[in-house]
What we know:
mainly alpha, 3-stranded antiparallel sheet, 5 strands, DNA integration, Integrase_recombinase_N
Amino acid sequence: MKQMLFKEWAAVWVEEKRKYVKESTYANYVVVLDNHLIMRLGEYKVCDITKEIVQNMIIEMRDRGRRDKRGGLSDKTVKDIIAILKMCLRDYGRNDGWIYGKNALKYPLNCNAAQIRIMDDDMYRKMLSAINREHDFEAMGYALSLYTGMRIGEICALQWKDIDLEKKIIYVSKTLQRIYLKEGNRGVTKIIIGAPKSKSAIREIPIAKALESFLESSVSSGEYYILSGTAKYIEPRLYRQHFMDFLCRNKLDYMRFHDLRHTFATRCIERGGDYKTVSCILGHSSVNMTLNRYVHPQLEQKRKCVDLV
C-alpha cells in the first residue's frame, strides 16, 4: 500500500464508512476528523503515528483542546476522539498493541470535570412542584425525564402515537438530533429523526402512576410532538435553553438537563430497583454502564453504609 498521509487516508476512510453506518454516526466521524484529528495528525504518514505522538495529543486535548481556546476537552470527548482514531488506523492495517488495547494509552485525571448534579429529596420536590405549576407541554418533558430517565433526543422525538395510555407504556424507537455534514468545502447542519444509538435503546417503558395523570390531561393528536403539542418538533439545543429558563423562572438550582436522567437512575436504585431493570429502562447495552455512569450514592446512603460496620 502507498504510504499515505493521515489526512489522505482519513478522507478515503470516512467516505468508505459512510456506506455502512447511520447518517448521524458518519456526521460524528466527519466532525471529529475535521475539528480534531486532521489538524493534529494530518501531515503525518499513517505508519509514522506512534503511541507517543497520540499520548502527547491526549494531554494537549485535555489541557487546551477546545477550538475556542477556552480550555480542554472532557474525558469522554477525548476518549471518543481516540476511539475513532484507532478505528481509522486499524482499517489502514496498523496492528500495534496500543491500537488494540495492549500497552494502553493513559488519560490524565481531570480535576475540572463537570459535576453531575443528583437532586436530593428537597430539590426533587421543588422541581416537581414547579413542573406541576407550569403544567404545559414543555414541563411534561421534564416530568418524562424524571420519571423515565429518557434522553433529551428521545423526548424531543416522542409523539403521542408512541404513548399507549391504556397499556400504560411509552414506546421509545427514535431520537432527534442536529448533525453536521459537509457539502463540498461547506459545512451544513440538519435535523434528523432516526433510530436510537443502539438496539438496547429501542425499548418499552412503563408509565409511572405519578406521570400518568399528567399525560392524560394533555393528550393530543397522534402525530403531534409531546413537547410542542403540534406537528412541529423542538430540537434538543433549544429545549436545553428552555430548561435553563425554567430553572431561572422557578428559582431552582442550576443543573444540566441530563442530570434529570442521572437523578432518575440513582433514585430507582436507592429505592430498591434492581440494576438490570434500571439498565433496561435507561436503554443501556450493559449493567456496567448503568453502574459506572448513572448510579451515584447520596450522602445519606453513605452514612447508612458506614453505620453497618
